[in-house]
Amino acid sequence: LRVEALERLKEVSDPNALSELKVHYLGKKGQLTEILRGMGALSAEERPVIGQVANDVRGAIEAVIAEKQEAFDREETARRLRSETIDVTLPGKKRAEGLIHPLTKVTQEIEDVFLGMGYEIAEGPEVETDFFNFEALNLPKNHPARDMQDSFYLTDEILLRTHTSPVQIRAMRAANGRTPLKIICPGKVYRRDDDDATHSFMFHQIEGLVVGPNIRMSDLKGTLLQFVQAMYGKNTQIRLRPSFFPFTEPSAEVDVTCAQCGGSGCRMCKHTGWIEILGCGMVHPKVLEYGGYDPKEVTGFAFGMGVERIALLKYDIDDIRHFYNNDLRFLGQFARM
Ligand code: PHE
Q: Does this complex have an ipTM over 0.95?
């Protein structure tokens, strides 16, 4: 048995055959086990002798199997090392890197400017109630100014917000009378416009609101000047033109000096030297009341700007629809800006 086993083991060339032989000789039903099991039938003199021999044989077989197993393991490791070798000289696979959308980028820049002035960022729902979108902003039902912003109504009382101004009311109510309140609110707004180069049924606004004791129009003007100089450069100037919004009084439209021509007149500013960028004003007393403030104790200013408009001007883009078409040739240009 010993000679036969060692002979067969020597010829084994793969791990499967080795484990088969291991079972064959040493397993529960293996040949050696059978011999050892038969020991009971032997006489007292024979037993230790045969036992000794059987144990020697088992030892020898086990040693050879262990040796073989080790050799197979070494081979397996070597084979795996060979097949898993990485050729570090091969050129890497290029991954297409994502980049920030220009509107997101401009929004973040604007946010940064106001965060630097101590403002907090607020948000509100895009599906809004008539109350927050109009009523609380001093636009009662049948007010003609509601037509300024043709709306998408979902029900009689619920619509897609037409501006970010409803967040003014929400932020004031959340502040519970606390002053100063300084927030900006970026977000999507919706209007029933036919899409063209300068209009879109959906676009982005950033609302600003400051409420506190003795907030004045000069604070508004100074804040906006700071802002445009941070966005467009130190030499940028602003001018305020009287305007009308139901939720601010007085109201103004703000122009910046045209960055393209420096004020001398070009295509971009329609040869006026000025470009309109936002609407603003002193918060109407009724709006402060709707927000839970006493207009005899606090005043405030608010402004609202279109992000697309700011971005169009900043990058000299001629069609608002570029922002929504997801053409990578367009979007890719802003990776380096
Ligand atoms: N909500 C106004 C608009 O969408 C902009 C605005 C905001 C004007 C705040 C004044 C104050 O046109």
A: yes
Whether the pTM exceeds 0.80: the reply is: no
User: Residue 249's closest CA among 213, 226, 220, 206?
Assistant: 220
DSSP 8-state class, residue 284: P
> pLDDT, tens digit, for every residue of 261-310?
877 888 878 899 999 999 999 999 999 999 999 999 999 999 999 999 99
**H helices then E strands: how many in the chain?**
11, 9
Does the annotation place 249 within a ligand binding site? yes
Element (H, E) at 160: strand 158-160
Q: How far is the CA of 70 from the centre of ligand 1 (A)?
A: 80
d(CA 10, CA 18): 10
Nearest CA to ligand 1 atom 2: 304
Placement of tokens 């599906």 in the chain: 127
Four-residue CA torsion sign, 122, 337, 306, 303: positive
Which residue(s) pair with 181 in the sheet? 211
Closest residue to atom 6 of ligand 1, CA basis: 304
303-326 per-position pLDDT tens digit? 999 999 999 888 889 999 999 999
Decide: 254 and 226 in contact? Cβ < 8 Å: no
Per-residue burial over 47-69, b = 16 or more CB atoms within 10 Å of its CB, e = otherwise: eeebeeebeebbeebeebbeebe
| Distance from residue 206's CA to the centre of ligand 1 (Å) | 9
Q: How far is the CA of 69 from the centre of ligand 1 (A)?
A: 81
Side chain identity at residue 272, one-letter code: T
Give CA angle at 102 (100, 106), nearest 5°.
Answer: 105
Q: Which of 128, 163, 172 to mutate to test the pocket of ligand 1 (most atoms within 8 A of CB)?
A: 163
Pocket of ligand 1 (CB under 6 A): 163, 165, 207, 245, 248, 279-281, 302-304
